[in-house]
Known about the structure:
The structure holds 2 protein chains of 2 kinds. By secondary structure, chain A is mostly helical. Chain A has 4 helices and no strands. The relative contact order of chain A is 0.03. In chain B, helix 2 (about 15-40) packs across helix 4. The interface of A and B includes residues 20, 25 and 37 of A.
Amino acid sequence: MTAHDDDWLARALRVHEPRIEDRGFTQRVMAALPPAPAPRVVKEKDWIVLTGAATGSAIAASQFPLEPFLHVLVEAAQITWIGAALMLACMAGVLLAEPVRRAL
Amino acid sequence: MDASDEQLVARALGPDGRQAFGALVERHQSALRATLRRFTHGNAALADDLAQETFIRAYRALAAFRGDSGFRTWLYRIGYRCFLSEARRHEPLTEEVAEHHALTGDGAERRGFMEDYEAALGQLAPAQRDAVHLALQRGFSHPEIADIMGLPIGTVKTHVLRGRQKLQELLSDWQEGFDHDGT
């Protein structure tokens, strides 16, 4: 079976399918809808809370001395690098131990 | 240019929400009602009730629509669930095949082809029939149909492949005419 065979049926169905006229259907649906999607209110609340939190954080950050924090961060990064280097050295040692033992 | 479904959904969650949602209903009502008529074996009144229920549920859940799938897929998933819960309550749904032709537009050729199509569809298993309809008439992809029907994608592929093969065999007399259309 080829793609061409597949096409003709789908094409024929789309061409031949008639449209169902609305005849007041949309109006009936709209009349039966609840007043408004309630969760929208929650979204607006979330937005207000987020804006408030961001503004508060910005004010607090502007009042805070950043230099000591940066110093701590740099130190922490150095400690992390030393730890990572030690871990890699240990792993390399484990991997090389057996070949070295055989060579000796 | 017409707004996309996703743009209308975004508007429907805003201040002029009802108007935007109305545009979505107008856009999708014909195809959704036709699909539900198919699922309910041509019971137009029941299909319209289910379509109305589908739109109402969609409106209520609109804020939860995240756009992971397209709006149309999401809408049909709601519609299919409405249909399944109705089918469980009133099994089996009555056959009213003639109702399919209470649609606008006619013409001997169109009516003849669609009647043969209805008869051929009637020879498929229900899940196969629904999957084939969603694929061929609504143009949904296999993953979208799996999402709508809540089936594994492999099952959907099998349903569509076998169903389409059977339809092509049964409707092979019509193929030549459509090939000559050159479309």
